[in-house]
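Case study: 5HT6R protein.
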Amino acid sequence: LQVPRTPSQPAAGSESRRFANKHSKKALKASLTLGILLGMFFVAWLPFFVTNVMQAVCSCVPAGFFDVLTWLGYCNSTMNPIIYPLFMRDFKRAMGKYLPCCRRSGEPRPSAISLSMRNSNSGPHAATSLKNVL
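Here is what the predicted structure looks like once written out:
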């Protein structure tokens, strides 16, 4: 016996394939971002740590070279705010909300009151959160 297919069955299969494809693209993009961040971290800090160990063992590293490697590591920290917006749309949107230089012209600027309400326990849920704390 063959069960006749209903028109919704092929659509459901295509929906699940589309969902899986979208999920795999997000996972691939997240892996790429993480790989770039970790790669930049190792390129920037690994020479510093190797030189630091060499300095402890043989005291043969010039101070100027050690300073250059230290600043290379510091430069890695300045690269993170540049790398995140390039690869993460959500991060870019969040930065656009709070930094005037990154905001689009049509987006409203958050008020200081809304920011302070969001960051404090004042507001409609303050009493319940205070009860939970006590």
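For the exam, be able to explain this: DSSP finds five helices and no strands in the chain.
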